[in-house]
């Protein structure tokens, strides 16, 4: 049960729902379609509503005409966000879209078991599948960016959080399942000098071929290990300073237009870079990426490093949190002292259901306060790394309270405030674009709410 199950938040739920899964489902299921709504150049099909409504019901919501209207309203708001993003020039770089697509595909591959199983299930190659769902991923990211643009300045004070909580009827307070505080320190394996030299030699060979007249894009499509290279030819599009890896950016900005760098090392691997264009604070590049592959010796060095660090932590020479901030290679958790964060509240208390399965099954065998020995695991990009896990605390199932759940309650109060701002934005923005709803759904009164 959520704090604010009213219709003003329905479109937020639709916006952050898994478009990836919905798109994949729609590839497998065939639905007789017709257009039921238009927002400028964007359309909503009967099948779009059917898929979104099915997902809405799968989250435990009630099945009725009002809820179906709410879901349709959410879809209309989504298309309005896209239309206004076009008007206001709010964009998401193609490189970010490809990275997100690759990340989600890796999750799907891990869940289903292999690329071959995905290709067998959908009856098409992985590249064909990626092309078909990429548009939905891009739309989702643009909508998210537009929403952030609208609500970026919204905050809530402690007094507002307390007032929000006080106004919730006692019998409507949610009951939270088990929560835990779990942290990690991650070490990525490092390549030997010989392996690095081998990759650089390979990239220098590709660079020579391009300098001798071969097409950069074609070479990138054939050899680059960047997820979107087969479609983009390595072109990342325009980025502002500070948005790409520092080493990549520094090398790119030293180049003249059309010049190609020598191999550059970043956290993603090794690149050769061509500067295509510069305009003010923005620059456009394309690159060829070769990712490192690690030997048993590389993994052993990472394991030994963490084993030594664990010994220092257990001796109380440094706290786990300080060690994570200083030594962990995982940027997603190091800033929080190594702790996994709740996706909604961004607090360090996280429901066990939100944990990676491997983390969940590991802490299930641990004592509170203990730290594992180094464990090898596979990252979302498919590469291997090593980590130690710290099981700090466990909070039993309980009814929501300010004392135990302040971050969650704060996030719920913030969501409510954001939804009110977005409602106001929708009322104003709908007069700036052309919106029409099929007569079959006129009773939903979408444009009158």
TrEMBL record:
**InterPro entries tied to this protein:** OMP_Chaperone_SurA (IPR050280), PPIase_dom_sf (IPR046357), PPIase_PpiC (IPR000297), Trigger_fact/SurA_dom_sf (IPR027304)
Instruction: Tell me the Pfam families matching this sequence.
Output: Rotamase
Q: Which organism is it from?
A: Marivirga atlantica
Q: What protein does this entry describe?
A: Peptidylprolyl isomerase
Looking up PANTHER family in the UniProt record yields: CHAPERONE SURA (PTHR47637:SF1)
An example of a GO molecular function for this protein is: peptidyl-prolyl cis-trans isomerase activity
Q: Signal peptide: which range, if any?
A: 1-24
- Report domain PpiC positions: 177-277, 280-375
Keywords tagged on the record: Isomerase, Rotamase, Signal
